[in-house]
Design a protein that fits this description.
With 372 residues, the chain is an alpha/beta fold. Strand 9, helix 6 and strand 10 form a beta-alpha-beta unit.
């Protein structure tokens, strides 16, 4: 897009390089493209001993320390970010995660217009106790009140904010990388072959239904192994439940940071099982769809918005069992449906996503912060 270059700050995530989740993926994909278009992009990052230093893909990295406690880590890091000197002269702030809404007045006090990417229904996540859930509900209201704009990545999230708070949002989805690569050399070290396994990629959290997927698979007579990629900090108890549900056909690989290997896992699986239920449009689902994988997804509006009729759905382990067995009986049907979804998913384009963020930033920079 044509227009003046801007100084943009991206706050509230683990930062770049993207090695964790959807927010980090969005920051890397959008921030690098904004930088390539000439904008000055600063990303506040958590400590990364293997990080690239002060610059990554044209973005300035500002590493700040963290409090290693799940309930405080995000908010404490964001608090350090919003008072950091690197925020001086920034024209627009993009804050990710409504949980950071408590700190929006600090940004506004610095006369910086701010948009908050509200993500999914965080208060529904099982890892939070009663106090955490109440905080997240409060944070949603504060984000509505104190943001100059709200960003939603899925229609279901936009509908929620409209019905719950009578608040408009700017709809900007994630992008989907398209992967046609035939390369499969990174599978052999894992003992895998193309079209020879089912795949899960997820953080080990209850609302991602990893345990239900593993239990449903274990109850099946599946011939192909189930490959599970993922872990989570502070999730020892849930990880133990996943391990207890597995049998010897389940390969628990933990986290994989090798992106080429992950691309090959997505590209060559028989099915991709996706249990995410509260997070809006999920980048892992988009990545699997962009690789032509056949998805079997937890049945919620966010996943149906992406997949439509090009995949299967489940709500309990028995559904997983049935879907996996059907996929092994009908490989041609699965292959055709995956290819159709890959074609349809081209509507999720990172350049178009960046256009949306760029337009939003120009609108925000053209005015001073105003109460919603």
């Amino acid at each position: 897009m044509a227009g003046a270059t801007l100084r943009i700050a991206m706050i509230g995530t683990r930062g770049v390089p993207a090695r964790y989740g959807g927010f980090e993926t969005a920051v890397e994909e959008v921030g690098s493209r904004l930088a390539k278009r000439g904008h000055d992009v600063t990303v506040f990052c958590r400590p990364d001993p293997d990080g690239p230093g002060e610059e990554h893909l044209g973005m300035r990295r500002v590493e700040l320390p963290i409090v290693r406690k799940r309930s405080l880590e995000t908010l404490a890091h964001t608090a350090l970010s919003v008072i950091n000197p690197a925020l001086r002269d920034v024209q627009v702030a993009l804050v990710f995660n409504a949980a950071n809404a408590l700190l929006l007045p600090v940004i506004r006090a610095r006369r910086i217009p701010v948009a908050t990417h509200v993500d999914g229904l965080e208060w529904q996540r099982g890892k939070w106790g009663a106090l955490g859930r109440r905080y997240y509900r409060l944070a949603e209201r504060l984000a509505v009140r104190w943001s100059d704009d709200l960003i939603a990545d899925a229609r279901g999230i936009a509908d929620y904010y409209r019905s719950e708070f009578d608040a408009a949002t700017t709809m900007i989805a994630y992008g989907a990388p398209i992967n046609h690569s035939p390369l499969a050399d990174r599978l052999a070290p894992l003992g895998l072959e193309p079209d020879g396994y089912h795949l899960v990629v997820a953080r080990f959290e209850p609302e991602n239904h990893v345990r239900e997927i593993v239990a449903g698979y274990a109850a099946s007579g599946a011939r192909l192994p189930l490959v599970v990629v993922g872990s989570a900090p502070y999730a020892e108890a849930y990880t133990a439940r996943v391990e207890a549900a597995a049998d010897d056909r389940v390969l628990l690989l933990g986290a994989i940071w090798d992106q080429d290997q992950l691309d090959q896992l997505y590209r060559h699986c028989r099915t991709y099982l996706h249990g995410h239920s509260v997070g809006g449009t999920n980048p892992s689902l988009l990545r699997a769809a962009g690789a032509g994988a056949y998805p079997i997804a937890y049945d919620v509006i966010f996943n149906r918005e992406v997949i439509g009729h090009h995949g299967g759905y489940f709500t309990e382990p028995a559904d997983v069992t049935a879907e996996i067995m059907a996929a092994e009986r009908e490989p041609d049907r699965v292959r055709v449906a995956g290819a159709a979804l890959q074609a349809a998913i081209r509507r999720y384009d990172w350049d178009d996503v960046t256009d949306g963020y760029e337009q939003l930033c120009h609108r925000l920079a053209a005015r001073s912060p105003n109460p919603r």
